[in-house]
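Replying to the earlier thread about multi-chain prediction with a worked example.

Input:
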Amino acid sequence: MGSRPEAVAPPEIFYDDDTARKYTSNSRNIQIQTSMTERALELLNLPKDGVPKLLLDIGCGSGLSGEVITESGHHWVGLDIAPSMLDIALDREVEGDLLLGDMGQGLGLRFGMFDGAIGISTIQWLCNADKSFHNPHLRLKAFFTSLYKCLTNGARAVFQVYPENDDQRELLSSPAMKAGFSGGIVVDYKDSPKKRKEYLFLVCGQEVPLPLPEGRTEDNDDSGSETNKTVHVLDRRRPWKIQKNNKSEKGREWIKRKKEQMRRRGDDVPPDTKYTGRKRKNHF
Amino acid sequence: MRLLTHNMLSSNIKGVVNGFPLRIEAEKVVEKNVEMNGDFLKKMFEKIEWKAFVEASRGMGYTELPEEADSSMLDSNEFLNRFHHALLELHLEEGALVCPETGRRFPVKKGIPNMLLHEDEV
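Result:
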């Protein structure tokens, strides 16, 4: 656990028949992929006029995300580099058309055809140089410029990503901005290490304010959060005795604080009542 | 692969100026029934390159589309049915797509075109 697939092998080799089958039959994985796709569709904010839209699914894999698109009533075309994943998509009889292709080579699609694009856990693969002639910067540039071309004006593209660090965030978003997109990164469940999800949110040709992330309470406003969240290092160096005294006091206040913390992470927490933090009766 | 997708694909080889439309070499064509949606068809009609579309449908063995079409024809149900059939129901299952400029063949297997480029084509 913990190792990133893109650090192991190139996508077309990592997703061999065996991995592709496991990937698509794991119910937890299906659930995560589905909820991320639903969130990405929500961020796409397609006009709700009842007319089906044509979407592009980059790195469609076995079609898990495509099924969500079909369910919401839209048509889609999927692109992936791993033949084994596409084979599984065929077995599952997905509705969209599938293409075997490498997004880093540019998309080769005509101008203004698509009403939106999504990519679930896809574009971080572009940050790696898997072959000697690969250059991540050039591949990202080719990808984003060709993507910009094939979207209609005002269309959005949402990519769920797992960036390793700020450098990778920059590596991913700067070629997108250079290609003409506006937008940024939306972080859902910022405070929860497990539920935290990042979406690269891009708009074609228009300036649109970034959508609000999920899993955030009002007091936690975005603008100053980076500076407010500095850790107070000094507090940690209190004398040993005081520290020990504080530890034994896990009273009502402490419980409330912890519950608040968990709520901010988006966990299910029972509500605060008059019973919260009360001592049990001494029965003996 | 449906003709809808074919009408969007162009050859992406380095140096190719006009890689559209790709010529279809059909070996096996299958038909799958899809529910018709008039609004979607009308929207796609504006985006479709009609000449390439008619040529592609002939390549797949479907000859009932008119040479020229304009948006007034969309009111006719018969035309809509044909357009729908060619656009969404015909699938190229086995065959190839050929780049109009270089003649490079992109094989289509099990309905999936292989658009991967070689190292020297990027």
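The beta strands of chain A are 54-58, 75-80, 97-100, 114-120, 151-161, 181-188, 197-204.

Feel free to reuse this layout for your own posts.
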